[in-house]
Each structure stands twice: as structure tokens, then as C-alpha cells.
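Input record, target 12 of the design panel.
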């Protein structure tokens, strides 16, 4: 029996506090989510376990439901494995769910949409209990103005004005878009066209605004750049009509400041039902 036949694919739903980590992707020089999770898997199985995630979050960005796929020894008990991982990685990283998946399930390439949320704490003074989970903005924000600016981003557009330009192929971008070609090889997607399916602002209480956005994929820093522009619109520093003008211009220099990472959460990842129902 070959080694591949002894391994079986699993799908994990992982939540983490991104505050102490330098992003998801493995970086031997700093602490990352994949480094901690992968290191714990290696400790348990005494062999390297490569990980694939649905989204590669930046430093300080959180996840409520990151999806991770990997191959583990087929004989392992998943309930025990989840307990072991949570003991080794918690409380900053918690495996919420784990299940067997079909061999062709791929956390990134099988996904058809990602859902992010961004939280803004709008008050005169910062809240010490929201410092690591929301962007504190002092200027009063107008919900109606920000909601009006959502309409232009829905649909398929070139989001060059809101994305960091992709790096050369020999310099992998942390959250750059990657695709599989017909041979299964990973190739870098140079286009910054994305399809946004949902975008909306909601006032959660008297001081917390929540931005929800769902799209087939996101280019690097896209959500945080959009939020920075929305906040300037909400603070009446620029009109709601600027959002469409920015999309048409494709000029990153014309967009607003980048919103800080701590307010951003990867909330949910969507897959075709025939993939998620299979092998679980």
C-alpha cells in the first residue's frame, strides 16, 4: 500500500484571533496561524502535514470560520484529533469542526465565495475591550451615505483602485489570487476583476457599524481599502458618488487610507453542495 493510500483528506473549520499572528501563511521567521496549526499536526503525526486555506488573512486579521484542508493518516479519530489540536493551539486558534472530505476537496480552489465582516467602533473615546476587534473612528459616520456607496461595488468590476498590485510570480503575494490550470498547476491570476455578490453596512448599536461583503474572491487588501473609503464617505470627507468614480479610474492612489487589520473577520466560506456533502 502506498503512502497516499494511507492518508485521507479532512476539512476543518477554524476560528482564530489574529492579533498575535503575522497572518495565516507559513513564514519561518514569524508566528503565523498555519505555522502553529501545521506545527501541531506535525507534532501529533510525526510528519509534515501541508495545509491549504480558503483565504490567506493578513497580520492582525481574524477568522470566525476559516476553512482548511489537509491530508492526515486515515486511521486517526477526528474527534480526538480536534481535541488535541485545540489543546495545542488554543485559545488563540480553535478547530470548531472537522470532517472527512472527498479526495478532490480543496479549501481554496473548491470555494465559490468568501464572506468578510468589518467592524467600526464610532465613538469619542476608544473602548479597551474593542481595541483588537474594531477600528476606532471618532468622526460621526452617516450610515445612509455609506450604504449608498455600496451599490456601485456590487457586480463584476476591476478593483484595481482598491487592491495592492500583484507581485511577480517569484514573490508570492500574501493574499494574491491564484488559480489552477487544466494540468492542476497553480498559476497566478494577474486580473483584479472580482464579482461582489453582497455589500452592506449595518448599525449594530449606538456605536458599532458592521460592513458585510461577499465575493467570489478578494485581491490583496481589497476589503480594508474599501472600508477606508467607506469611512471617509460616512464622515462626509468625500461624496458617495466617489465609489463609482474610483472603480472606473482604477487608480489606487485616489482611494482612501487602508483600514487597520483588527476590524476584519473572515466569517464564512461557501462551497458547492455536491462538494461539501460528499465524504463527510
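The sequence produced for target 12 reads:
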Amino acid at each position: 500500500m502506498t503512502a497516499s493510500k494511507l492518508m485521507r483528506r479532512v476539512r476543518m473549520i477554524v476560528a482564530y484571533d489574529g492579533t498575535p499572528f503575522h497572518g495565516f501563511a507559513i513564514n519561518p521567521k514569524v508566528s503565523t496561524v498555519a505555522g502553529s496549526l501545521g506545527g501541531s499536526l506535525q507534532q501529533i503525526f510525526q510528519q509534515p502535514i501541508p495545509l491549504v486555506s480558503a483565504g490567506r488573512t493578513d497580520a492582525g486579521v481574524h477568522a470566525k470560520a476559516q476553512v482548511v484542508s489537509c491530508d492526515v493518516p486515515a486511521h486517526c479519530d477526528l474527534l480526538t484529533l480536534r481535541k488535541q489540536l485545540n489543546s495545542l493551539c488554543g485559545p488563540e486558534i480553535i478547530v470548531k469542526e472537522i470532517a472527512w472530505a472527498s479526495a478532490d476537496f480543496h479549501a481554496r480552489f473548491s470555494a465559490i465565495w468568501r464572506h468578510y465582516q468589518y467592524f467600526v467602533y464610532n465613538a469619542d473615546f476608544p473602548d479597551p475591550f474593542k481595541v483588537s476587534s474594531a477600528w476606532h473612528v471618532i468622526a460621526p459616520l452617516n450610515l445612509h451615505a455609506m450604504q449608498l456607496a455600496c451599490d456601485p461595488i456590487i457586480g463584476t468590476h476591476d478593483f484595481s483602485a482598491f487592491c495592492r498590485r500583484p507581485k511577480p510570480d517569484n514573490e508570492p503575494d500574501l493574499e494574491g489570487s491564484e488559480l489552477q490550470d487544466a494540468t492542476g498547476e497553480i498559476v497566478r491570476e494577474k486580473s483584479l476583476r472580482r464579482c461582489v455578490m453582497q455589500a452592506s453596512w449595518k448599525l449594530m448599536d449606538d456605536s458599532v457599524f458592521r460592513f458585510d461583503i461577499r465575493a467570489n474572491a478578494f485581491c490583496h487588501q481589497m476589503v480594508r481599502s474599501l472600508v477606508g473609503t467607506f469611512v471617509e464617505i460616512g464622515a462626509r470627507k468625500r461624496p458617495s458618488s466617489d465609489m463609482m468614480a474610483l472603480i472606473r479610474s482604477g487608480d489606487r492612489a485616489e482611494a482612501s487610507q487602508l483600514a487597520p487589520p483588527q476590524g476584519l473577520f473572515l466569517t464564512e466560506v461557501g462551497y458547492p453542495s455536491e462538494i461539501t456533502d460528499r465524504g463527510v
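The chain has two domains: 3-109, 113-270.
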